[in-house]
Amino acid sequence: MSLIWLYALANIIVDLLTLFGFISGINVTLLGLTILSWGNSVGDTMASISISGRGFGEMALTGCIAGPIFSLMLGLGLTTLKFNLSVGDDVSEGIILP
Questions:
Q1: Model's pTM, two decimal places?
Q2: What are the pLDDT digits (tens) for 61-71?
Q3: What is the DSSP letter of 32?
Q4: Is 17 helix (H, G, I), strand (E, B) or coil?
Q5: What are the angstrom distances between the C-alpha of 16 and each of 12, 22, 31?
Q6: Per-residue pLDDT averaged across 84-88, rounded?
Q7: CB-CB contact of 84 with 91 (8 Å)
Q8: 2 Cα distance to chain centroid
Q9: b or e along 9-23 (b: 16 or more beta carbons within 10 Å of the residue's beta carbon)?
Q10: Is 5 exposed, middle or buried, given 0-12, 13-18 or 19+ CB atoms closer than 10 A?
Q11: Domain range list for the chain
């Protein structure tokens, strides 16, 4: 049931962002790359601020760097794995090196 709520809320947020882009005349892709990504980082920012306020500045700095890197590596890794499994052959065969 919680997945249905997350799916519905994600669709509502994207629809509101599309509506805001339509009203303001700003490209929806630009809004998605800025506003939506900033909103995604608010939780990490608040956590880093509270951790650094308790005297763990190194831990907060590590969280600022490691969190996005982990998300990027996991996202690219899973996408690449899915592509390789769906294609069925090695992706590097199509690369032509000079």
A1: 0.50
A2: 888 888 888 88
A3: I
A4: helix
A5: 6, 10, 11
A6: 78
A7: yes
A8: 20
A9: eeeeeeeebeeebee
A10: exposed
A11: 2-85
Distances (CA, A) of 68 to 30, 79, 92: 20, 16, 27
Q: How many CA atoms lie within 13 A of 69 on its CB side?
A: 6
The token pair that represents 12 in the structure block: 């509502």
* Type of residue at 97: L
Q: Which letter does DSSP use for residue 33 in this model?
A: I
Rounded average pLDDT over 59-81: 84
Residue 97 clears pLDDT 60, i.e. is over it: no
Tokens representing 37? 């990504």
